């Protein structure tokens, strides 16, 4: 008889070894290697019948893989055009960010188009989901609802309802009695995901799985879960703000640099096709210490306001505090202003912040931060219809950034009339008639252009 042996598998990456080790040899994680289960024979796998013959790639039909609109344009934008039949998407986000509310809205709009939807909730009862659906206007006859935590029962619901869209909320709450471990454990999550994905592929059911996240924001459970699915979506939002951002971390059917914007309101969640106004404050008259820039969220340009405040320091070490901005870049910009713009910042506390809870971490925000700080120190307002775009180097030079033309077009669309950009920016002829553009090589020249408004 062939000799049997025990296999050990890493719960994070699936790496296999013939003996137990404390640290995975592939992903270097500690304590994730455990017995795979049943022993396997050492004989080699023999050839087996194929499900379908291999054909030239030019003869493979693509009609069955064409995307279908979900009814929510912001979601379709992130997915790359819509939902692909048989695609499995994983939606992850912090507790309370609105994942279930968003998916219930997706299910309702899918059902309103005459397509059958199955919503399986493992965290709430059917009555609780029904109450939320009534509040958000998501009740429809083509939307079927089930509260299950058993994998076998979930498969039975799929066979009975035969949906074209399946939503499982969440994958960590579903378990199988045939597999060891508790629901949410590594083995259970892997088995549940593999089974649901297999059924979705075989029956062309578009599937949305909700995933919990850990303290560091990554998807809970084995890392192989993210490898198995076709799309990984991250739903983000600050608890102090109603704005929610949906971005694709992985997407086999479209780009991964698009975002969708949503507003979490009392009656559910609504799309925000033009979120620019959320990050720019309204002033009755120009005030010192403010400057508007244009940041890129994926492929979408968004106007955002940077504010700065300087006050006399009360301690030997002046304070440098920032909110929504990269503190290391703020420190660099302040050093450049001290060295190359002759600003006296050594005896003042400097506070910088973004408006509306926006997180501005790209280098293109440097120039607006510098001009807002200058405006605060000089107690002189900048022109209200001015935007500043550019990266500031340690030598005081202003460097070009990507997508400058798209940023300027968005500023012109909103109504801004003047812009300060790096001198070596290309393609400005495309927006020459829309904005009065000042091209500056150095931070001192940018301050001079902002002071004169030209």
Task: Explain what you see.
By secondary structure, this protein is α/β, with parallel strands linked by helices. It has three domains: 1-40; 67-273, 3-Layer(aba) Sandwich (Rossmann fold); 278-452, Ribosomal Protein S5, domain 2. It is built from ten helices and 23 strands. It has helices at residues 73-79, 99-112, 126-136, 151-161, 186-203, 224-228, 327-340, 366-378, 404-414, 443-452; strands spanning 4-5, 8-10, 16-17, 33-35, 40-41, 88-93, 117-121, 143-147, 165-169, 206-211, 231-237, 243-251, 259-265, 268-271, 290-297, 300-312, 320-323, 348-354, 386-388, 391-392, 398-399, 418-422, 436-440. The strands form six sheets. It has a nine-stranded mixed beta sheet, with helices on both faces. Strand 11 (231-237) and strand 12 (243-251) form a beta hairpin. Residues 38-43 have low confidence and may be disordered.
What's the number of extended β-strand segments? 23
| CATH second-level architecture of the largest domain | 3-Layer(aba) Sandwich
Strand order in the largest sheet = 8-7-9-10-6-11-12-13-14
**Largest beta-sheet details:** 9 strands, mixed
CATH overall fold name of the largest domain:
Rossmann fold
State Rg: 27 Å
**CATH class of the largest domain, anyone?**
Alpha Beta
| Mean pLDDT across residues | 88
Number of helices: 10
Helix content: 25-40%
CATH superfamily of the largest domain: P-loop containing nucleotide triphosphate hydrolases
């Amino acid at each position: 008889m062939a000799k049997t042996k025990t296999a050990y598998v890493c719960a994070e990456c699936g790496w296999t070894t013939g003996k137990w080790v404390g640290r995975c040899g592939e992903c270097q994680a500690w304590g994730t290697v455990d017995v795979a289960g049943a022993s396997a024979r050492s004989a080699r796998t023999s050839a087996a019948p194929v499900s379908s013959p291999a054909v030239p790639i030019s003869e493979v039909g693509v009609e069955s893989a064409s995307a279908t609109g979900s009814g929510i344009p912001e979601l379709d934008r992130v997915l790359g055009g819509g939902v692909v039949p048989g695609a499995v998407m994983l939606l992850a986000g912090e507790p309370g960010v609105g994942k279930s509310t968003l998916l219930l809205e997706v299910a309702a709009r899918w059902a309103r188009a005459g397509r059958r939807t199955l919503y399986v909730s493992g965290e709430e009862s059917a009555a609780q989901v029904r109450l939320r659906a009534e509040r958000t206007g998501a009740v429809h006859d083509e939307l079927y609802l089930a509260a299950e935590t058993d994998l076998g029962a979930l498969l039975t619901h799929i066979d009975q309802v035969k949906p074209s869209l399946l939503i499982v909320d969440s994958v960590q709450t579903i378990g199988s009695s045939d597999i060891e471990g508790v629901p949410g454990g590594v083995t259970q999550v892997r088995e549940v995901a593999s089974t649901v994905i297999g059924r979705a592929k075989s029956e062309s059911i578009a599937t949305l799985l909700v995933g919990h996240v850990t303290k560091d924001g990554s998807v809970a459970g084995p890392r192989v879960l993210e490898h198995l699915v076709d799309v990984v979506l991250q739903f983000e939002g600050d608890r102090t703000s109603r704005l929610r951002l949906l971005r694709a971390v992985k997407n086999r059917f479209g780009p991964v640099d698009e975002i969708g914007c949503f507003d979490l309101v009392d009656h559910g969640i609504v799309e925000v096709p033009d979120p620019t106004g959320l990050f720019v404050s309204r002033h009755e008259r120009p005030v010192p210490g403010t400057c508007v820039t244009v940041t890129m969220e994926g492929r979408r340009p968004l106007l955002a306001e940077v504010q700065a405040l300087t006050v006399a320091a009360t301690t030997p070490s002046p304070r440098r505090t920032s909110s929504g901005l990269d503190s290391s870049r703020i420190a660099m910009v302040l050093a450049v202003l001290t060295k190359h713009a002759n600003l006296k910042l050594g005896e003042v506390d400097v506070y910088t912040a973004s408006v509306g809870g926006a997180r501005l971490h790209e280098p293109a925000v440097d120039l607006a931060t510098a001009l807002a700080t200058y405006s605060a120190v000089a107690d002189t307002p900048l022109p209200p219809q001015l935007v500043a775009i550019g990266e500031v180097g340690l030598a005081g030079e202003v460097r070009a950034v990507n997508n400058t033309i798209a940023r300027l077009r968005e500023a012109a669309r909103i109504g801004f009339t003047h812009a300060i950009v790096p001198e070596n920016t290309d393609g400005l002829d495309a927006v020459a008639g829309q904005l009065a553009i000042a091209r500056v090589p150095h931070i001192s020249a940018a301050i001079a252009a902002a002071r004169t408004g030209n």
